[in-house]
Design a protein that fits this description.
InterPro entries: Aminotransferase_I/II_large, AON_synthase_class-II, AONS_Archaea/Proteobacteria, AONS_Proteobacteria, PyrdxlP-dep_Trfase, PyrdxlP-dep_Trfase_major, PyrdxlP-dep_Trfase_small. It is an enzyme of class 2 (transferase). Belongs to the class-II pyridoxal-phosphate-dependent aminotransferase family. BioF subfamily. With 394 residues, this protein is an alpha/beta fold. It has 2 domains: 131 residues, Aspartate Aminotransferase, domain 1, CATH 3.90.1150; 235 residues, Aspartate Aminotransferase, domain 2 (3-Layer(aba) Sandwich), CATH 3.40.640.10. 44% of the residues lie in helices and 17% in strands. Strand 7, helix 8 and strand 8 form a beta-alpha-beta unit. Helix 4 packs parallel to helix 12, helix 12 crosses helix 13 and helix 13 runs parallel beside helix 15. Bound molecules: 4'-deoxy-4'-aminopyridoxal-5'-phosphate. 4'-deoxy-4'-aminopyridoxal-5'-phosphate (PMP) binds next to helix 5. 4'-deoxy-4'-aminopyridoxal-5'-phosphate binds next to helix 5.
Length: 394
């Protein structure tokens, strides 16, 4: 065997020894709570399809119609010939949707949230910028910050006193605070009103990744800015469309000048093939649902399931976290025990992922339960019972 392969195999064996090998499972049906995996029907608490739209018949029909109208692929990047009427309509709708929160709003659609974050930070920050990054930020923000070549300073989770000291000490012309709105592994919310006040005081951008808030938070599902009733020219907003919106992609919304700058300069936007137009076409139907009475009803259902789960689950050694969102972690601690619990759950028909370092800090391996409007109260009651039972057994 080649030396190069042998070295990789040794590293993989090391990962195995720490119970850190990640594995994929093959799903065979749409991503609903009753998904079929490797031939078995499971009760799933792992998708980010918070409103249960991923298998919505109207969105599936719109995707099919989009393929008929525009074909299978976009054929090129946006700045060459890949920018279809569907992409343009989607961006207009998204800009209108977030307009109550953002002055002179314009939106830019991306294939994924990961790319949107790389693009946003790369275009707005540069080697002349001080970028203040929350310690629990998503990997795509961390990578975007690195790629931007900005001077990155990480502030501890929720520590706005520390952030305020760092901002006051900064002499950079460009300053930028970057944060998740809903922390993806803990489920808690950033204190955006205070963060925005600090940014306005120090003339800094506030860049918000609302991957887990768009469609879910706020009375009309406009996301975390609506939830906190915030509006400011300093805001740059990223929302994903593969989670609550049920399809794929993401968008950045900000003042039109910010977006035009991104079109001119953001490499992950410029140098990649545009997403299939049919996807953008389907997202127009997603937005109709999110904005309308059905979206409101789905949000009400989701919030009632979140309350049920957090109020009824009683644990003694494992710990829940102070989360009022659809992300409900159960912290177990050791990697191998978290794996064992996830495996036992799976044996009994519940699919709940175990999340381990480096995604979460060492010693805080956890089950990441995610709830969806497509779950029923009975589904949640079954999971609560099973978790309580397993805690006693293990
Ligand atoms: N930001 C956060 C906070 C996320 O949780 C995710 C996805 N897990 C992303 C960005 C990336 O979004 P996408 O999956 O669309 O690439």
């Amino acid at each position: 065997m080649s030396k190069l392969i042998a070295e990789l195999d040794a590293q993989l064996a090391h990962i195995d020894a720490q119970s850190l090998r990640r594995r994929r499972r093959v799903t065979e049906t749409p991503s609903t709570p009753r998904v079929q995996v490797d031939g078995r029907a499971m009760l799933a608490f792992c998708s980010n399809d918070y409103l249960g739209l991923a298998a919505h018949p109207k969105i599936i029909a719109a995707l099919q119609q989009g393929a008929e109208l525009y074909g299978a692929g976009s054929g090129a990047s946006h700045l060459i010939s890949g920018h279809s009427r569907a992409h343009a309509q989607l961006e207009e709708r998204l800009a209108q949707f977030v307009a109550p929160q953002i002055d002179n709003a314009r939106a830019l659609y991306f294939c994924t949230g990961y790319m949107a974050n790389l693009a946003m930070l790369g275009a707005l920050a540069g080697s002349d910028a001080d970028l203040f990054s929350e310690s629990l930020n998503h990997a795509s923000l961390i990578d975007g910050a690195r790629l931007s070549r900005a001077n990155v300073q990480v502030y501890p989770h929720g520590d706005l006193e520390k952030l305020s000291v760092l901002l006051a000490a900064s002499t950079a012309v460009k300053k930028m605070v970057v944060t998740d709105s809903v922390f993806s592994m803990d489920g808690d919310l950033a204190d955006l009103p205070r963060l925005l006040a600090l940014c306005e005081q120090h003339d800094a951008w506030l860049v918000v990744d609302d991957a887990h808030g768009f469609g879910v938070l706020g009375a009309d599902g406009r996301g975390v800015l609506e939830h906190f009733n915030l509006r400011s020219p300093n805001l740059v907003y990223m929302g994903t469309l593969g989670k609550a919106a049920g399809v794929a992609g993401a968008f950045v919304a900000a003042h039109a000048s910010v977006i035009e700058w991104m079109v001119q300069r953001a490499r992950p936007y410029i140098y990649t093939t545009a997403a299939p137009p049919a996807v953008a076409h389907a997202l127009l139907t997603s937005l109709d649902i999110i904005e309308g009475p059905e979206g409101a009803a789905r949000r009400t259902q989701l919030h009632s399931l979140i309350a049920q789960f957090s109020q009824t689950l009683q644990l003694t050694t494992w710990q829940t976290m102070a989360s009022a969102t659809a992300i409900q972690p159960v912290v177990i601690g050791a990697n191998d025990v978290a794996m064992q619990v996830a495996a036992k759950l799976y044996e009994r028909g519940f699919w709940v992922p175990a999340i381990r370092p480096p995604t979460v800090p060492v010693g805080t391996a956890r089950l990441r339960v995610t709830l969806s409007a497509a779950h029923t109260a009975d589904d949640v009651a079954q999971l609560v019972d099973m978790l309580q039972q397993l805690e006693k057994e293990i």
